[in-house]
Automatic annotation (TrEMBL):
Pfam families, per database record: APH
Chain ranges of the Aminoglycoside phosphotransferase domain: 28-190
Source organism per UniProt: Lachnospira multipara
GO function terms (MF aspect): transferase activity
InterPro entries, sorted: Aminoglycoside_PTrfase, Kinase-like_dom_sf
Protein name: Phosphotransferase enzyme family protein
Species classification: Bacteria, Bacillati, Bacillota, Clostridia, Lachnospirales
UniProt keywords, alphabetically: Transferase
């Protein structure tokens, strides 16, 4: 039986058997729906472990995307239920992210191009800061690794045993996926964790430390991306995030 499992002003998500269908409001831009479906298909083509895209449809003027349903709690729910296991969960999160970052698809949008456009669109930062951010972005190494773009606990579904131990992870919501530098995606997730759990929480720092240890990456290299991804996210114009993001942008020399 079809069941509503999530809803906001622009989309509703329904579960029907082993399928989940995201139905978009009639006002939703058709090109955005098709882009989301295409991006998801390209991630799937890259060989990443994600729910398979099944169909794109339109009924009575409403577009929809149907994918496989992955059962299980989100990582956000697990961290809340089993706070003592947070270190284990972070390590599993990093392990899964490092694995899909080994994949690539040359048809995905280039991350640096996307970041440039987002920074260029900003009107609420001064020109000298924008210049410094874009200069720093230009200096970063060009990679082609698969980057999620919104890799956060809310978008990670876990397969767990009765004691809350993770047996496997699957990420959803690949609409922001790009090809680019893995450390940029790590910096973005670090920022998302700070936004979700607050600056006082050490979850984001544990996450970054776990990634650097697992990949033998210098922490200073990852943190160099923080002002860049903060500026890019500021372009989304979310008022609740504005103060924290501007703080990170202003720390242009953060190490």
């Amino acid at each position: 039986m079809k069941k509503l499992i999530a809803e906001n002003k622009l989309k509703s998500v329904y579960l029907d058997g082993g399928k989940v269908t995201k139905v978009f409001d009639k006002k939703y831009n058709k090109s955005d729906v098709l882009y989301e479906a295409l991006n998801t298909a390209r991630v799937e083509d890259a060989g990443a472990k994600i729910p398979k895209l099944l169909s794109v449809d339109v009924t009575d003027g409403q577009w929809s995307i149907t994918s496989e349903y992955v059962e299980g709690p989100t990582l956000t729910e697990l961290i809340k239920k089993y706070p003592a296991k947070v270190d284990e969960y972070i390590n599993k999160m990093v392990e899964y992210q490092v694995e899909f970052q080994k994949k690539s698809n040359p048809l995905l949008l280039v991350l640096k191009d996307k970041l440039h456009r987002q920074i260029d669109s900003l009107t609420n930062i001064d020109s000298s800061t924008k210049y410094e951010l874009e200069t720093r972005l230009d200096s970063m190494h060009n990679h082609t690794k698969l980057c999620h773009g919104d890799f956060c606990p809310d978008n990670i579904i876990a397969d767990v045993d009765k004691d809350g131990n993770i047996k496997g992870l699957t990420a959803v919501d690949w609409v922001h996926a790009t090809q680019g530098n893995a450390s940029a995606d790590i910096a973005n997730t670090y920022l998302l964790l700070k936004l979700q759990y607050g600056e006082a929480s050490d979850i984001a720092d544990k996450y970054m430390d776990a990634f650097c240890k697992a990949t033998n990456t210098q922490k200073t290299y990852v943190t160099t991306w923080l002002p860049i991804v903060a500026a890019a996210r500021l372009a989304k114009d979310n008022k609740e995030e504005k103060d924290l993001l501007e703080k990170w942008i202003n720390v242009v020399d953060f190490q």
